[in-house]
Each structure stands twice: as structure tokens, then as C-alpha cells.
Amino acid sequence: MRKYSAPVIIFILSGFLITLQTACGFRAQTANNTNKDTRPANVEVSVADAQPRDVPVYFESTGTLTSDEQTDVAPLVGGKITQVNFDIGSYVNRGDVLVRLDDRDARLKIEQSEKQAQQARDAVEQARANLRQAFAKLGLGETQNFNVEQVAEVRNAKAILDRAEIEYTRAARLLESGDVSRTMYDQRRAERDQVGAGCKVALNLAKKNYAGIRIAQAALQASTSAAKTAQVQVDQAKKSLGDMSVPAPISGYVSEKTADVGEFVATSNKIATIMRTSTLRLKIDIPEASVGTIKPGQAVSLRTSAYPDRNFAGTIARISPGLNTSSRTMSVEAEVDSAGVLKPGLFATVRISRGETQKVVLIPAVAVRSDGGTNKVFVIKDGRAEEHIVQLGENENDLVQVKQGLNGDEKIAINNLNDLYDGVSVTQTQQQ
Questions:
Q1: Tens of pLDDT along 378-414?
Q2: What stretches of 39-103 show up as alpha helix (H) in DSSP?
Q3: Of the candidates 81, 51, 33, which has an alpha carbon nearest to the alpha carbon of residue 397?
Q4: Is the separation of the CB atoms in 83 and 263 below 8 Å?
């Protein structure tokens, strides 16, 4: 076998590498020439004018939509469920009966308490009749004040006693003068004493009858109080019957249901959750630098991933009195009209105006071509396309903001973007 020295081997390898590199370069140049040859020399395009505009400057924040009001519903009394009138997603009005409990015991209690109340009312009527009778014994009206001297029997007895006293006094004088006998004197004295005793009897009877009035009045008061107590028991029994129906405390949609027919529930058991969704709340954290621009009633706009092409409007409703010392932000709450589609729990991006404007250029969104994260537009000038790399801002319907890369007086290609490249000749077919 022939042996080669090291310099010879190196020379041979160098020649091989040079030959390989030349071949690869030739193939690459051939491919480039082929690609250039396949690109169109002229492209037909439609154009639109870039539109310079002053737009408000916003700051963005994020948050989760929550219901304006939400409440858990539980029965006021325990019992067995006999009827359920709702399901998840049902809309209920305030006062609608959600659940009915077994009310048989409650109805029995009403019946018993009403009987007792009727008996108590009858006792009041009887006590009232007794009181009228007691007043009648003294010849008094129910509104008259009692004066024992004005009782007819007492007044008559005192009149008789006064006459007997006069006759006795006269007889005593005549006895001293010897004009009447001792017998006549004793008779007048006996008559006076007898009439005096009768007067005392009449007086004691009047006082006794008055005591009867006081007793009758006390009995009427007691029976009236008992009747009121009985009526309270009736009202409580009726309330217990009403509590067997569990109403909706607010109007809204049922988001949770935990009640089934036949189940026993206690006052601590939740049977449903209701949320009001016509208006939603969104908590927003405002940067410290923008705190001075926030005021109640200020408009906000927001978007959600569920409806990416739709803006929703809201207003600032509540503002925290202070800032969070850790995040240096101020919490505010916006009220948002759900428009019948937004739901509690949706994640939202909200924009709030800073109260200042900036100049941007608006172009049709279809005029932007994205290549590997780079946004490009093609400016049509002097029959040729010029490639411009742009920085985009917010979308506004079918338009998009261009923050950098355009002056605002250009004409922009809006179709056949994949055929365009820098410097290609174009034919303008339509102006928008």
C-alpha cells in the first residue's frame, strides 16, 4: 500500500472542502434565483387612506365580574319539603314561592288557637255585660264617677234620717218643757235610731255594689288581656303557616339548588342561591398616578374573552377612601349593564380614560400582515409597495391603531398582502 505524507493529505482535504462549498453556494444561489423568479413582478391591490386621529389615553386593569346582589335562601322553620318550584337557571321574582313545607301541623295549630281566641272573646263580652249590670245597680252610667252620697238609696235613707233627727230633737225640747210624755220622746228616739241603722245599711250596700263594679272592671281587663294573648297565638300560628312557604327574597336567577321533595330541612340549611345579574359589579385597582382622574359616574369600557369583538359599557359607582399601601392602588367598583349576555364570574379587561389624548394612525385591520410576531403594512407610493414595520395599539371595530411606523398621510394596501414585498410594482384597482 502506498503511504502519503501529512502535507499531501492536508492538501487533498482542502481541495475537497473547497469543491463542496462551491457546489453548495451554487445550489443556494440557484434556489434564491428560483424564489425571486416565482414572486410576481406586479401585484394588483386595493388601498385605503391611513387616518390620523387624537384618541383618549387609557389605562387598563383586569377583574372578575360579580353579581350586583346575591343571597342564600333558607327556611325560617324546619320541615319536610313537599313542593319545589324552581331549578338552576330559573328566573324568579321577589316573593315567588320557591319551596313549600308540610303544613298540616301548622293548620291544626291555627284551628286550635282560633277556638281559644273565640272563647276569650266570649269571656270579654260576658265581663262587659257584668260590668254594665254592676253600674246599673248603682244607677250609674259607665262613664260617671262614683259618689256614694249620690246613690239613690243612700240619698233617700239620709233624707228620712234627717226628718227623724228633726222629730227627735223637737221631742227632746218638748220633753224638757213637759209638753210631751216620755213615751213620745222614746218613740221618736227609737224611730231615729232605726232610720239611722237603715241609712248605714244603704250606705254599706252602695259601697258593696261599687266594689262589685271594681271587680267587674278587673274581670273585664283580665279577659281583654287574655283575648289579646289568644289573638297573638292565632297570629303566630298563621305566621308559622306562612313560614311553610319559602319565598324568593330578591328577583334574579337561581345559581344553586340544594332542595328536593321529601327532604327534611332545618333553618340552617340553604335551599337555593339567587343572584341578580341585570347589573354586574367589577372591582378595579387604580394605579396611584391615576387616582386623581377617577370620579363617581365616570364611564369605563370592558371586554371579555367570551365576547372578544364586543365592548361593554359601565360607570364608576363606588370609590375606596384610601389606597392599598402594599400595591399602591385604589380600589373602585364599576357597575356594568350585563346586556343580557355577561355572566358573574367572567374575567374582564377594563379600560378607563386618563383624561388626555394621544395622536395615533388608524388603518383597516385587514391591512396588517403578521410574520413571526412582527406586524407589517405595505405603503403604496409611486406605483410600488414599501414595507413598514409597525407597532399596533387597540382595535376599534374594523380599524386598528398604529402607534409607530406611519405618519398618517399614507395609502395602505388592504388585499393580496401575501403577494407583496418591498419594492414590488403594484397596480391600484380600488380606493377605499
A1: 999 888 999 999 998 878 778 888 888 898 888 999 9
A2: none
A3: 51
A4: no
Beta strands at 347-364 and 399-404: parallel, antiparallel or unpaired = antiparallel
pLDDT tens sequence across 409-422: 889 999 988 888 99
Structure confidence by residue, pLDDT tens digits, 128-151: 888 777 777 666 655 556 555 556
Total Cβ atoms within 10 A of residue 271: 21
Average pLDDT over residues 246-275: 93
- Exposure string of 255-264, with b = 16+ CB inside 10 Å and e = fewer, is bebebeeeee
DSSP run (H or E) holding 278? strand 272-287
What gap in Å lies between CA 231 and CA 139, rounded to an integer? 35
What are the cell numbers at 339? 346586556
Q: Are strands 97-101 and 384-389 parallel, antiparallel or unpaired?
A: unpaired
* CA distance between the termini of the chain: 81
Q: Which of 350, 271, 268 is nearest to 86 (CA)?
A: 271
CA 60 to chain centroid, in Å, comes to: 28
Beta strand 42-49 with 425-431 is parallel
Question: What is the Cα–Cα distance from 48 to 408, expressed in whole angstroms?
Answer: 11
Long-range contacts of 29-37 (CB under 8 A, 24+ apart): none
Nearest Cα neighbor of 314 from 289, 288, 342, 291 is: 342
CA pseudo-torsion sign 95, 99, 102, 105:
negative
For cell 395615533, name the residue.
Answer: 360
pLDDT tens, 42-86?
888 899 989 888 877 778 888 899 998 999 999 999 999 999 999
For residues 430 and 413, the answer to whether their CB atoms sit within 8 Å is no
Strand ranges for 5-85 from DSSP E? 42-49, 51-73, 79-84
Domains of the chain, start order: 42-53+360-431 (2.40.420.20), 59-64+276-356 (2.40.30.170), 75-102+244-265 (2.40.50.100), 106-242 (1.10.287)
208 C-beta neighbours (distance < 10 Å), count: 10
Global confidence as pTM: 0.56
Neighbours of 106 (CB within 10 A): 19
| Residues in CB range of 203: below 8 A, 6 or more apart | 148, 154, 157
